[in-house]
């Protein structure tokens, strides 16, 4: 059957309405420059929501995918393969991990981490050691377990009854954790920097305190680094900048540079909790995904590349601060590497989505993190020209927005 060129109306006609996508349809991109069906150009500061760490159509990633596609696509978890073993070795050599498990997304990674924590507690302590401590405004995924653990009730309230024994506490409030944690706590799960929650970094004191409390109560400390991992903060993983090592770390998003892959990193002590048959995934660790992830890590996991991410952060923030001095729309600009959030002032509270929509009209793609934060997660290798062009368009969009009020 001959297919016609799809339009945005086709989304409304054929797709389950879980999303409300932009009115334009992207059709091609290179680096951080994207084009829609009408040939309009956009500078992409979204990066697939922190996924396209090396931009669009990266030559090294494309070559790895094509090369692997000529060899082996999928065998299932009854077999292993060369790309997954190379990827696992890279992680063990570059992080705290002794063992890894690969899946397909951040939600699956967090699901595995939480299941590991409960099973470890049952095996080594008691069936009553099931409580999980999580934090308000956190985001850990959309499975029933992870959406329940996430601290945003709007995402979970319509799916009750939810998994139990989950306590949500204020982020960066160590006193609250001290009061809530007990020997029945099996895990504490935390984002080193809350992404969806507004680009809010944890303090070093908070993470160090969580580490000490988990050690005291034999609880598993889980770092959700789905958004902060694979170079996003200017470090391979954010835990390395804090000097606090988790027991389990979840990773996804940027790992495949656009090809779906996720995973957890852990130590031998905790890896034994997930024994043969206790957990699994059909597609996780498939050769195609792991070949691309290997190519991505080989580029990102270098001192020079990560230093360049931090340098780009400084440039990005300097320009944003200059824009804000002229326009006065942001109460605060928060950042960790190229994970950046601009908190709107009271005058513009609740208007992040409207501003982001107008940005697209001006040829720059931006994100939001809740109703009050404009978020940027551009490619880590964005060019200086694309950065400057995108921020110039962003300023024009803000000026336009102010003129319409």
UniProtKB/TrEMBL annotation:
The species this protein was found in: Vibrio tritonius
PANTHER family in UniProt: AMINOTRANSFERASE CLASS III (PTHR11986), SUCCINYLORNITHINE TRANSAMINASE (PTHR11986:SF113)
Signal sequence coordinates: none
Similarity comment text for this entry: Belongs to the class-III pyridoxal-phosphate-dependent aminotransferase family. ArgD subfamily.
Catalytic reaction(s) noted: N(2)-acetyl-L-ornithine + 2-oxoglutarate = N-acetyl-L-glutamate 5-semialdehyde + L-glutamate
Residues reported in the UniProt entry to bind pyridoxal 5'-phosphate: 106-107, 139, 224-227, 282
EC number: 2.6.1.11
Note in the entry: May also have succinyldiaminopimelate aminotransferase activity, thus carrying out the corresponding step in lysine biosynthesis.
First-tier enzyme category under EC: transferase
Pfam families (UniProt xref): Aminotran_3
Superkingdom to which the source organism belongs: Bacteria
Protein's pathway: Amino-acid biosynthesis; L-arginine biosynthesis; N(2)-acetyl-L-ornithine from L-glutamate: step 4/4
NCBIfam families linked: arg_catab_astC, argD, PRK01278.1, PRK05093.1, PRK12381.1
Record's protein name: Acetylornithine aminotransferase
N6-(pyridoxal phosphate)lysine found at: 253
PROSITE patterns: AA_TRANSFER_CLASS_3 (PS00600)
UniProt subunit comment: Homodimer.
Cofactor note: Binds 1 pyridoxal phosphate per subunit.
